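As noted in the main text, all predictions were made from sequence alone. Below is one such record, for Membrane-bound lytic murein transglycosylase C.
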Amino acid sequence: MTSPTSATATDRAALPTRARTRLASGAGVSIALAVASVATSAGAAHADEPYVVRQGDTVSQIALRSGVSVGAIARASALADASRIRIGQVLTIPTTGTTTATLVSNTFAGRTYSDLVVAAANANKATLLRIGVPTTSQMRATIVTTATSMGVDPALALAIAYQESGFNHTAVSAANAIGTMQVIPSSGEWASQMVGRPLNLLDPNDNVVAGVAILRSLVRTSPDLATAIAGYYQGAASVQRNGMYPDTRRYVASVQTLMSRFR
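Prediction:
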């Protein structure tokens, strides 16, 4: 991409985003209540949406994907304990009378994203702007420290982060790729499994851990560095299936140039 605020590709979801499997049928699960996205009232009239809980779901993950708060889902679904849900349970995702300010458009690089994804992106962008984030210099230092501790080349992590967001943690794409490392929620769930704890993509430190964990896995499983970089942008499964798209090749070239700058 030519801009440091590039979005992750649609096929990023093709990464092996294996969700946590602690949630057994009929059993409760402890939820790590992450900072959730917040909707602002605008008088829109839409029906609330039902959601059937699936294996690996948590209320915080559902909230992040839907662009509403954990508390809003708990209230709409009459949950006595928002830390316990079960497979097959029907939750209510509230939409009546709420919408979000348009901070993120619904298109990027010729791709148009669904209203639900874009609403979540706008809500997450609004949350990051509201809570405040570290400076770009602070984010750069966090990336170096995290990459070093996780055995990933800091120059690679810095180059990816700069290409994705310019080290701006308020960056959110139309695909709902969040923060400095531009990680979508499904990939965040996979990263959570890899590091062995829930990661909140709105949290600057967790966001970097998620991105670096994904990079580490891609480097370990790809035949070469260029393919690993392409997998971060396009999705590893898509690269394997389709080869690199033209925009992916430009992304890889830019990241490799940036790596030289950050050494």
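The mean pLDDT is 81. Residues 204-221 form the longest helix (18 residues). These features were considered when defining construct boundaries for the mutagenesis experiments described in Section 2.9.
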